[in-house]
Design a protein that fits this description.
Distance between the termini: 47 Å
Structural class: alpha+beta
Number of helices: 5
CATH architecture of the domain at 68-191: Alpha-Beta Complex
Largest sheet: 5 strands, antiparallel
CATH topology of the domain at 68-191: YbaK protein
Family: Belongs to the PRORSD1 family.
Helix content: 25-40%
Number of strands: 10
Strand order of the largest sheet: 1-2-3-9-8
Radius of gyration: 16 Å
GO molecular function, one term: aminoacyl-tRNA deacylase activity
Keywords: Ligase
CATH superfamily of the domain at 68-191: YbaK/aminoacyl-tRNA synthetase-associated domain
Order of helices and strands: EEHEHEEHEHEEEHE
InterPro entries: ProX/PRXD1 (IPR040285), YbaK/aa-tRNA-synt-asso_dom_sf (IPR036754), YbaK/aa-tRNA-synth-assoc-dom (IPR007214)
Protein name: YbaK/proline--tRNA ligase associated domain protein
Strand content: 25-35%
Amino acid sequence: MIYLILNAKKEGKIMQLRKGHPALLDRREEKEIKVYNLLEQLKIPYEQADHEAASTMEACERVDELMQVTMCKNLFLCNRQQTDFYLLLMPGNKKFKTKDLSKQIGSARLSFAGPEFMEKFLNISPGSVSVLGLMNDLENRVQLLVDEEVLEDEFIGCHPCVNTSSLKLLTKDLTERFLPAVHHEMKIVHLPNPEEE
């Protein structure tokens, strides 16, 4: 295992960016370990860093600096009847307006899905939402929606189903290797930037 130690300090602690499987797996949650095992099984390289809980985009900015990648905003949504569920990946600097998305996916009255559905379908708690949680959606209840701008970046940052760790992987590995392996397809959407509104 190769360790790359960066002087990115957060409240006096030095965070480490590691290539591959992190150390001390026995102290990690099972859902996090499952992510690392699947990525290694698929031979998807990644860099990993542990940090204090990062459940907001502001907290993720410090991790972005360390990993030199922009963490996506991940929104877990549903229709009014709570029968259709969506995971939206979008740039953190964009504001989400339901009307911009509803027309593109043919689902009116979108709202945030409750934490019970997040746990049930993705095995993720609020604040830890991640595209990698789709590995737990064995019945394909969740449709992945990706803002086109996310796909323009070479790398993508996300949590390994817990918000005390972050990963950096190639965007093409996510779209071309991970998603087919977990039997999910993405729908590309366009969410306007502020200057377009």
